[in-house]
Amino acid sequence: MSEAVPDPILYCSKIVRRFHDAERELHVLRGADLAIWPGQSVALIAPSGSGKSTLLQIAGLLEKPDSGEVYINAQGTVELDDDARTRLRRLAIGFVYQSHHLLPEFTALENVMLPQLIRGLGKSEAGKRGSELLSYLGLGERLTHRPSELSGGEQQRVAIARAVANGPSLLLADEPTGNLDPKTSGHVFETLMTLVRVTGLAAIVATHNLELAARMDRRVTIADGLVVELD
Ligand code: ADP
Ligand code: MG
Hints:
Blueprint: E1 10-20, E2 25-36, E3 41-44, H1 52-59, E4 67-72, E5 75-76, H2 82-92, E6 93-96, H3 108-119, H4 123-136, H5 152-163, E7 170-174, H6 182-199, E8 202-206, H7 210-213, E9 218-223, E10 226-229
Parallel strand pairs: 3-8, 3-9, 6-7, 7-8
Antiparallel strand pairs: 1-2, 1-4, 4-5, 9-10
Helix pairs in contact: 3-4, 3-5, 5-6
Bound molecules: adenosine-5'-diphosphate and magnesium ion.
The site of adenosine-5'-diphosphate has 11 residues, from strand 2 and helix 1.
């Protein structure tokens, strides 16, 4: 007998998103579907302006679609109120962006502690978990450095540590290596993939780097407002 297929951690169903400016309507997503399962990595490869960031913002409950539904662990989210969406986002979802968005006046460790403190963890526990995570990502010697004292690759790895500090089940990364040179990109990317392997996290990574995308489990693109599987 075959085993029951588990629920996807994320299922974006028939997502529609339009933007208006003075002259015209921009129909960015036209019924896009995307599902991703625990432990899976998906590369989102599509030209600039095709809707990658829009889709990630909607998948991450930062924006609402005009229509369609976003299921997190089989729970619909569109009808939830803002508080419930925020709680779910903090619990289940981590974000990494092209620029690190670390707080400049805080150390690497403090930046990773912050989301845990916001969630209600005590300082010593948040510190312990934060330093373990940073050490695991090769930043054990950088705990007390401020972002300006770190290299671009190190900053991005701190941002990854911060994104997974609360143990999310879904990581959404929007061109996380877009500002890095190829060698550093490879290193930061490996960090992401190691986390996916070790924690069973699911990750969607928007990227223009085909070499890195080739090392992920699936590749998808956005064409005419729909998500299309690439291989
Ligand atoms: P990508 O991340 O693939 O480069 P985006 O999702 O950022 O694409 O944008 C898709 C299209 O939607 C672009 O043409 C962009 O200008 C437009 N767009 C995105 N956000 C907004 C917004 N808040 N208001 C108006 N247009 C937007
Ligand atoms: Mg974008």
